[in-house]
């Protein structure tokens, strides 16, 4: 939603200001310039990225138009789930959660938290490390190191679309110059025309530079920045799970382990101690 609002503000600010200054908006409508800029930039995008990055970037685009799903309610669900799992381990032993981690979709513990269960990646992260804990062959230091490596890998992999979009935006001003130069060449081919007509051709050529810069910094670059922000929010979920599991491995009670996880969240989404406690009590009563 904010992406659309931002785009509207850009259009109103740029084109509205141009019109208020006495400019004619019709002169800026140059579809062939857009074809050259868009076609050149998209071709460079395809040539400069492998199939995996292209697919990931295309898949990420619709998500950028949606609001963030990483809110306080989701984090409270996540921490309530971790509390339930660790409480079951504390009461019944590590072997009691084997069925839950092997089939989380059928687990009565995981099924209480549909928002978390719908995220395949975070569920896999949780169950994989719970499985390692059940095996009993790794200490907290080894698991922490493995978690750090996996989170780092996830972050780098998730950043690929942002980097691809940023490079696409960086190249658009250059393709705008290419379109402008092509327009100038076309003007020089018709140098015998009357001055008024030559002026129109030059104006059309200059629109290419304008569109390349506007598309790059007004429309494409913000998407790269937004993707990076969403990736940071997603990574925070993994860090929260990591801290909770490590606290449990070091012998802390479930309530205290979850408190460790709460502390690593961003202040804008972090529930208060009382809010989390009330949410856990409600989930236990279900």
From TrEMBL:
One of its GO terms (biological process) is chemotaxis. The keyword Nuclease does not apply. Keywords: Cell inner membrane, Cell membrane, Chemotaxis, Flagellar rotation, Hydrogen ion transport, Ion transport, Membrane, Transmembrane, Transmembrane helix, Transport. Pfam families: MotA_ExbB, MotA_N. It comes from the Bacteria. Its main location: membrane. This is Motility protein A. The gene is motA_1.
């Amino acid at each position: 939603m904010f992406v659309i609002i931002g785009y509207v503000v850009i259009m109103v600010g740029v084109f509205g200001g141009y019109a208020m200054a006495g400019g004619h908006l019709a002169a800026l409508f140059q579809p062939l310039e857009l074809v050259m800029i868009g076609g050149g930039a998209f071709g460079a995008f395809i040539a400069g990225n492998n199939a995996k990055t292209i697919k990931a970037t295309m898949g990420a685009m619709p998500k950028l138009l949606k609001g963030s799903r990483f809110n306080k309610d989701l984090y409270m669900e996540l921490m309530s789930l971790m509390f339930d799992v660790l409480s079951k381990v504390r009461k019944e032993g590590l072997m009691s959660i084997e069925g839950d981690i092997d089939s989380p979709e059928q687990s009565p513990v995981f099924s209480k938290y549909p928002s978390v269960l719908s995220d395949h990646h975070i569920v896999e992260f949780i169950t994989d490390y719970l499985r390692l804990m059940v095996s009993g062959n790794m200490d907290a230091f080894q698991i922490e190191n493995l978690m750090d490596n996996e989170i780092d890998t996830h972050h780098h992999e998730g950043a690929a679309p942002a980097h691809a979009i940023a490079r696409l935006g960086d190249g658009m001003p250059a393709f705008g110059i290419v379109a402008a130069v092509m327009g100038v060449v076309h003007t020089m081919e018709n140098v015998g025309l009357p001055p008024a007509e030559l002026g129109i051709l030059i104006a059309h050529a200059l629109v290419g530079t304008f569109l390349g810069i506007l598309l790059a910094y007004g429309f494409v670059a913000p998407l790269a920045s937004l993707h990076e922000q969403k990736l940071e929010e997603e990574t925070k979920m993994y860090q929260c799970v990591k801290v909770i599991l490590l606290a449990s491995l070091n012998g802390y009670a479930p309530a205290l382990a979850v408190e460790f996880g709460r502390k690593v969240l961003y202040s804008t989404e972090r529930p208060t101690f009382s809010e989390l406690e009330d949410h856990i009590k409600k989930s236990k009563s279900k």
